[in-house]
Amino acid sequence: MPDGDSIAGYRLTGRSRMGEVGTWIDAVAPDGSPGAALRVDPASMSTPGARERVVAAVIADRRLTQSGLTGLMPIADLVAAGGEVWLLTARPATPSLAELMNGRPGSPPPDAGSAATVLVETAQTLLAVHAAGLSHGAVHAGTVVIGQDGTALLAERGLALALRGQQPSYDRDLTAWASLARGLAAGWAAGDPRAAQLFDRAAAAATTHGLSAARDALLNGRDLLPAGFTTRERLVQTLQWWSAGDVPTQEPQQASGSYGHPYPTGASGSSGVPDDGEVVTLLYQPGTGESPNPGGAGVAGSAAVGYAGTTPAGTAATAGAGGPAGNSEMRFGPGVPADTTAAQIWRAGREQVTVPAKERLRRPPPSRRRRGGVLGSAVIFALIIVAAIFLWLQRGQPISVTAVDVKTPKAKGCDITVNVIGVITTNGQSGQVTYEWLPSGERSVRHTDPVQAGESTHQVSLKWDIGGRGTKKLTARLRVLSPLTPGARLEDKASFTYKC
Fold it and tell me: What does the pLDDT look like over 307-349, one tens digit per residue?
């Protein structure tokens, strides 16, 4: 594809790759900042209701990013041109995690710490998405974009579900994240057996106990990762090596089982970019309050917003690049603090949680302000987010159980009472834990105990009266009944010998 073509003011470069629902092309926004354009596969858009569902998914994404979630690809606009739909973003769509995992000859591969950071960040983002009643629907290495500072961004959230007309599925996201963890264990942690085992444990935790448990497994296993990994230095080195090379444009091939579609050539103009008709934003809908240019001046305000493909900087197509999503971008390099989001998460441990998007979405949208007040607004917004995180930490998320352990008791003498000790490990939140003791040859004993916030371990006991003559081997089994995900099983046992 030759350079120089544009869509809604975004100048398309020549670097493209296959996405889940279409073709990504790196682009330059009208204000000169890097971005990307996703040409959604026209065939998938032709199904009844597909366009409306895609618009709804994009609007939901923009509201999440405007309310403080930084782990999603920031969207600038969604436009229609010449019968095609294009998604414009405020960040480049390359490299994807898949491209980095494939590697380039001579490039230094990221270490296990880089993989752990990507997994923690994507888990945090998915937790916030799920809290908003949404899901991603197509989590894999191709829909994870790695920013220049090493941050992991989820791209194409909800688009595959929208095109297929499917409902959100948390289980599909959990399974996909677990598959991603296992892929990184086999790739970036291949030379580090302990880290690879850590990723496998996190993957198992995701499918059995959820993403919170998977994230906690990674955080609790940080000692198994390379020293200093939270700075992302190794990952940024790989990014710099990847970017320094002359990565040629490749015509994407149709991906099996996906909505990917090769970038058209010769269809209408030299590159297939529509060269007739107007470009219309799809995001502004009367009554929704949604605008293609939140918080700034632009063309929003009429029910039908049309503008030519050479939109100047400052219009709806460009404002997203410098809007709230752009302001939350972090950078890596000399003179820039290395205290990244990932470093904060690792340092805070499992007490670091994501503010549920349901609560953030209740806040009224920010009013339009003059350009001179943008910096002050950003500071106030950041303080609000910090306060919300603090309040959420105080209130806590629902309690979850991550492990159970039974200690072998001592049994000496005749006609004795043996005290069997069990330890239930939780995520440190307040709530109730229901469990049962199953002593061999005896009736089960069920209890429900309250657990206070800040206690990551809860000790329980079984007083077992044993009498008679002879020698016998006895087993005490401790089984957790709730809170557990449906179908999950969590128990432990201990055996001892009674002699009299």
Answer: 223 232 222 332 333 333 333 333 333 333 345 555 556 555 5
- Radius of gyration of the chain measured on its C-alpha atoms: 26
Q: Report d(CA 90, CA 37) in Å as an integer.
A: 9
Residues 66-87: tens digit of each pLDDT:
888 889 999 999 999 888 999 9
In order of their start, the domains of the chain are 1-93+255-330 (3.30.200.20), 95-246+333-366 (1.10.510), 401-499 (2.60.40.10)
Residue type, 467: G
Q: At what angle do helices 233-244 and 112-131 cross, to 10 degrees?
A: 100
Q: Is 232 left (phi over 0), alpha (psi -120 to 50) or beta?
A: left
pLDDT at residue 400, rounded to an integer: 86
Q: What is the pLDDT of residues 406-453, one digit of tens each?
A: 987 778 889 898 889 999 998 888 888 899 999 988 888 889 888 888
84 contact partners, CB below 8 Å, separation of at least 6: 39, 40, 42, 45, 274
How big is the chain, counted in residues? 500
CB atoms inside a 10 Å sphere around CB 254: 11
pTM over 0.70: no
Pairing of β 75-81 and β 84-89? antiparallel
Structure tokens at 35: 């971005």
Over residues 356-401, the pLDDT tens digits come to 333 333 334 444 444 444 455 555 555 656 555 544 444 446 888 8
CA distance 447 to 435: 6
Among 407, 404, 438, smallest CA distance to 424 is for 404
